[in-house]
């Protein structure tokens, strides 16, 4: 029933346009009553995004079930991947919806409010993990926003490719950028061994006026993390 | 006239509530006709945020007038400060609006769309500056989102303090965090001198398993930039 309503709605949105389609049109095509529609969807906008509530609930549950020793930036990146998975489960539907959302300002506003809820879910988890640390809420808010922006940059590129490119690889790459930027935002890892082997020592020589990012590049490659 | 309409609207919003106040109530209190209201404001929501259009235009002009050699992350941070300045110009009005916006979902949605437009203005400038670089649009989108999140984290803290705290210092601190995180996202600075003096050489010795952020801390202090 729910799937039939979504299918009927999208057929009409694409044939006639979103604004020109009423809930009555949708229920007539699906062969059900108005009350059935509103049992599943509070409004016409909600039928365009039928899976976000479930995905938000999944994300919240995933974050709540985080092991205490998991690295928090990695955890929110993994949580963001749940959204990608939802889109990638049904590429042609996701691409159709993307085109529709771009054309209809009301749907764009709806989407912004959904994105905001994902961002707040990630930020709430990070605020909890960073509680008591200097700038804990600042770091949490900035990292959550960066994760969402990186995810959406890769997701939009995939949608513009008509769902043909490798969405997973693009999102991994984008989230990797955020993880590298916020390495310094992480809580201290477990202490390193007290007496290092000679093998484990790296010497970097740099000019005092070298730009810091260039030095970090050298370091990453010396440490074998580039 | 415009200011009188805003003042009348806020008096009624605070006395009766936002939803309970009509445009007719506002124009009656201000002593003008409905047509005057709509000459200044497309809708009742717009009277709540009377200065965002001007501020968006100021931000766009500021970014368009950027010198070619300005460091781009610093430039978008300075652009974000224009928003803070607008709020700080009139603390009591900003605090009243903050309380109102928190209570009315429609205004919250409106605010999200405004925030999104600021973020896109910053991202458009960065995309242009990063054009042709690897991951240029990804970096632009992530940095724009991080700048907006940091600005808003400090702005909200100031609004919650009833406009009493030092808004400028809080925003500077928040934006400084973003600038430090995205140092590696900057375009290459002008080339350094080819033959460094011995004085200008820094040697850092680290364990291979040292966390990168800890090494960067050491480096920053060795380079005299901490």
From TrEMBL, chains A, B:
InterPro entries: DNA-bd_HTH_TetR-type_CS, Homeodomain-like_sf, HTH-type_TetR-like_transc_reg, HTH_TetR, MftR_C. Transmembrane segments: none annotated. GO terms for molecular function: DNA-binding transcription factor activity; transcription cis-regulatory region binding. SUPFAM superfamilies: Homeodomain-like. It holds the Pfam family TetR_N. Gene3D superfamilies: Homeodomain-like, Tetracycline Repressor, domain 2. Residues 22-41 bind DNA. Residues 1-59 form the HTH tetR-type domain. Keywords: DNA-binding. This is TetR family transcriptional regulator. It comes from Streptomyces griseoviridis. The lineage of its organism: Bacteria, Bacillati, Actinomycetota, Actinomycetes, Kitasatosporales.
